[in-house]
């Protein structure tokens, strides 16, 4: 990799420098738009003691769920945990720390971290366990709690297309948490389905500018469907 070219040859290079006890911010929602290749590489590396910030923790045997199998995740900061039996088992056994965060708040924590904003006030969670122990202020007659922004040592992100300079386009609902996650890593790794030459992407369609991207790799993706419902007409 040289100059503005962000492309790396393999996942070993993409995740070089990831160590035990680091914080990883992962894009995706359910199984949509998840960085499958990066997750598989982390599994292979055996890195442990990780704090993972993501909407959810995949499912049993796929997505971030595979990192639970060898207890590589120490703490999850997430919004939804309902599709993963191993997650539930480790949580109830006290083997996994979980910080449940409303989805909008979690997205804003990432966005604020990427924008250099250390904290923000939100009404979401006030008067509930989410707000316990947090600073409260009143604005225009309504109570708000102070939430801290979040940044990661690594951010792992799934895009659709990117050029070699790291300008990324997401496809449809894969935009979910990926654009915010991409801004919030000290090192941001983006895996995409297709890499094109600079100038081939319409500048008005870029979702994540290359300035946020440190490493870019082309991967192949299984794209599982989380739940398939079939009914007769």
Summarize the structure.
This protein has helices at residues 11-14, 36-45, 85-92, 103-115, 178-183; strands at 23-26, 50-53, 73-78, 97-100, 119-122, 136-139, 142-148, 152-158, 161-163, 168-169, 185-192, 194-196, 215-218.
Verbal overview:
The structure is a single chain. The protein is of the alpha/beta class. The protein has a single domain (11-218), classed as Glutaconate Coenzyme A-transferase (3-Layer(aba) Sandwich). The protein contains five helices and 13 strands. A hairpin with a 2-residue loop joins strand 6 and strand 7. The radius of gyration is 18 Å and the shape is globular.
Task: Report the CATH architecture.
Answer: 3-Layer(aba) Sandwich
User: How many β-strand stretches?
Assistant: 13
- The total count of helices amounts to 5
Spatial order of the strands in the main sheet?
4-3-2-1-8-11-13
Radius of gyration of CA atoms, rounded to a whole number: 18 Å
Q: For the residues shown, what is the average pLDDT?
A: 94
CATH superfamily: Glutaconate Coenzyme A-transferase
CATH topology: Glutaconate Coenzyme A-transferase
N to C succession of SSEs: HEHEEHEHEEEEEEHEEE
Q: What's the number of structural domains? A: 1
Q: Let me know the largest β-sheet.
A: 7 strands, parallel
What is the beta-strand fraction? 25-35%
């Amino acid at each position: 990799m040289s100059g503005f070219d962000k492309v790396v040859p393999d996942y070993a290079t993409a995740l070089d420098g990831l160590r035990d006890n680091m914080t990883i911010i992962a894009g995706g929602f359910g199984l949509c738009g998840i960085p499958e290749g990066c997750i598989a590489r982390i599994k292979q590396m055996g890195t442990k003691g990780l704090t993972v910030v993501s909407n959810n923790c995949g499912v049993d045997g796929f997505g971030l769920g595979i990192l639970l199998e060898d207890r590589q995740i120490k703490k999850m900061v997430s919004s939804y945990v309902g599709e993963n039996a191993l997650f539930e088992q480790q949580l109830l056994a006290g083997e996994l720390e979980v910080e449940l965060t409303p989805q909008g708040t979690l997205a804003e924590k990432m966005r604020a971290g990427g924008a250099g904003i250390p904290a923000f006030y939100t009404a979401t969670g006030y008067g509930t366990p989410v707000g316990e122990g947090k600073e409260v202020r009143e604005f225009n007659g309504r109570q708000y709690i102070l939430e801290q922004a979040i940044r990661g040592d690594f951010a792992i992100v799934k895009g659709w297309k990117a050029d070699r300079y790291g300008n990324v386009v997401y496809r449809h609902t894969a935009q979910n948490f990926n654009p915010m996650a991409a801004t919030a890593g000290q090192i941001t790794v983006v895996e995409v389905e297709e890499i094109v030459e600079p100038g081939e992407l319409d500048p008005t369609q870029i979702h994540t500018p290359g300035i946020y991207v440190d490493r870019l790799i082309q991967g192949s993706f299984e794209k599982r469907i989380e739940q398939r419902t079939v009914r007769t007409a």
